[in-house]
User: Which sequence fits this backbone?
């Protein structure tokens, strides 16, 4: 799996539609003054992966991730994050979400459903496009390749991919200190996740 | 499953010793089972000695030494089980210039399979990056992504093509 | 005693608003009683809006914005009741260069009555210091104080006269 | 009160006798590589002021503040920190510790006992010299101007001076984040301490 692109709109300080494209490997630096929104980008990616704890996203309620307005701008009614990932190893055959026939050696990502693909024409054979939306009403929407899905389906995609909940793939600001102070059995859990 | 844990533990421990030496320029860092006789349920403790210092629990290290040791553990896990990407938010904040440079060099070497996204204020870390994304708030409270050239003012661009630069 | 608290609260709040503006180059920061009707027992909450942003609980600010707001509160208390000295251990770690420079300038201004001892890795903070103490570990594990000139290698000196330099 | 000097020996990584002199005002920077001992200096000053929590000094037991040795050096048997402060306002008259007659307007520091003053000949009229020692046996020693005292006497000197336990005079590494996350009533305690 490689990260290809994220599109953010209405999520925290990213009021306007923002797109961020990646090479898939290498070191990319994110820079800017204090308070400009760098950690919010990291929160957007955590959220798209299925983070359910508002506290981990530095809010009191999940609603706090929706753009809350500024002195000159009104709050928005929806937050939306779309993440596009590429699986370069696979040669997927056209499959529906319900009937899954895995080619030998492929993991569950290979069964990405074909369907209504968003504007950038991702490589249908290889890309998986995940969308998460939250409305101020409290309603949530989850899409996998444009098809309605449950949060659980999104979380399942990332199980065992190194992006699961026990993984260290996302180190939030200030969290590096906690990695060493975790208790002996929490540390075991992290090694087990990698196993 | 207990076998898989044992195997992962040993591989990651070998990586950890190596990463620790790379980041500290020497010294010893390793994980130990709290209960050798009960591998199926034992917890894990960590000991470290930066070059020339005594081996002791990692919690007695300095602020910067702790962060560097934590990064050594992270990279050790990644080498065993790479994630598709890794976001590091200001992990270099407590590091001095020499350690920041060593960490940046290691990230570059580890980035063959993994997309590292490093949020930072440190110039040494920026120098190791192949791509740079600038975040600004020209309009107060509204974030915007711009293309950044090192040693030049950020160039606001019509989104989003410049991001792949 | 409830009167003394009210007086301290109001003076420190005035200082806090002023310190916040100085460190953020604008904006609003203030303390509020959680229970206006019961001054004798009320807790204190804090709200802030950096320039142009909405007023909100300080816990929603960014890492650097929080540190700067905390420093504004500290300096506000010090202005009301100076301590003989104040030790700040790497408070500038999460700050960008502009904020580091503003904080360093404020410390300089506040240091008329108070001896500030600032542990730092940041050049901007070092530039504001009138005196610099270097700590080294030439012998691993054993700390030693040396005299430091900016932009020159530390000069190990026979202790301790050089410290007043 | 102004800070004049601290002398450290056997405290954490400061195995050898170290002296640090201060102007009493202005900004002094302490610099050096990671792990060289900067925060240990801050711990030494907290300890001299009467800090009793080993955890606040980043140790498991108070014994952890004694130099524990390196690969080439044996551990030491004692940690000692001596702090010299100056009170520039006062004109003290020679007083013993027991019979205290305070000049009008002076606070309790003015009653600093005359006695056996350590080597640097601090200004007898104006300096107060505090020493704290801990032996590996577990025994502690406290001195005020060279005379035996209790820990309580040292802590009393600093009550209400802005260096008391609720004060923000010493901000340990990483603690700046906690200042804002303290609860409404803890915040009140800090303001009350300053009142
Ligand atoms: N729902 C929201 N709506 C609007 N603005 C928000 C929302 N949530 C957070 N913010 C704003 O985003 C800003 C914080 O952004 P972020 O934490 O990403 O900063 P940062 O670039 O990481 O800064 P630092 O370098 O200090 O860590 C704050 O000013 C906060 O007010
Ligand atoms: N009792 C002790 N005996 C010997 N060495 C000790 C003792 N206690 C702590 N140390 C050592 O002191 C070092 C930590 O020093 P300190 O925390 O002051 O570093 P620092 O200069 O603040 O570094 P940083 O910039 O990373 O915060 C550690 O290497 C630790 O092993
Ligand atoms: Mg941040
Ligand atoms: Mg330190």
Assistant:
């Amino acid at each position: 799996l490689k990260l290809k692109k994220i599109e953010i709109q209405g999520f925290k300080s990213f009021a306007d539609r923002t797109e961020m494209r990646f090479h898939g490997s290498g070191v990319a630096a994110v820079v800017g003054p204090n308070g400009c929104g760098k950690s919010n980008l990291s929160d957007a990616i955590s959220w798209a992966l299925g983070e359910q704890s508002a506290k981990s996203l530095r809010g009191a309620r999940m609603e706090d991730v929706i753009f809350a307005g500024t002195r000159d701008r009104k709050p928005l009614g929806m937050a939306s994050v779309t993440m596009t990932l590429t699986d370069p190893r696979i040669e997927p055959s056209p499959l529906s979400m319900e009937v899954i026939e895995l080619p030998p050696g492929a993991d569950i990502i290979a069964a990405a459903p074909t369907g209504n693909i968003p504007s950038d024409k991702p490589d249908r054979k290889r890309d998986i496009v995940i969308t998460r939306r939250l409305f101020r009403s409290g309603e949530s929407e989850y899409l996998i390749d444009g098809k309605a899905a449950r949060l659980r389906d999104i979380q399942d995609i990332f199980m065992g991919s190194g992006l699961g909940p026990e993984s260290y793939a996302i180190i939030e600001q200030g969290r590096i200190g906690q990695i060493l102070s975790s208790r002996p059995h929490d540390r075991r859990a992290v090694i087990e996740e990698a196993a | 499953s207990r076998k898989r844990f044992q195997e992962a533990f040993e591989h990651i421990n070998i990586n950890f010793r190596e990463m620790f030496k790379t980041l500290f320029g020497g010294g010893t860092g390793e994980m130990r089972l709290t209960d050798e006789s009960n591998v199926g349920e034992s917890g894990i403790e960590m000991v470290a000695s930066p070059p020339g210092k005594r081996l002791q629990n990692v919690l007695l290290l300095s602020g910067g030494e702790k962060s560097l040791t934590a990064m050594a553990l992270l990279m050790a896990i990644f080498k065993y089980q790479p994630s598709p990407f890794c976001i590091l938010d200001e992990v270099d904040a407590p590091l001095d210039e020499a350690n920041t440079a060593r960490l940046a060099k290691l990230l570059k070497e580890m980035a063959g399979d993994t997309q590292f996204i490093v949020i930072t204020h440190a110039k040494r870390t920026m120098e190791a990056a192949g791509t740079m994304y600038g975040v600004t708030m020209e309009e107060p409270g509204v974030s915007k992504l711009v293309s950044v050239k090192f040693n030049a003012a950020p160039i606001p661009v019509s989104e989003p093509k410049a991001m792949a630069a």
Observations:
- Residues 185 and 191 of chain A are 10 Å apart (CA to CA).
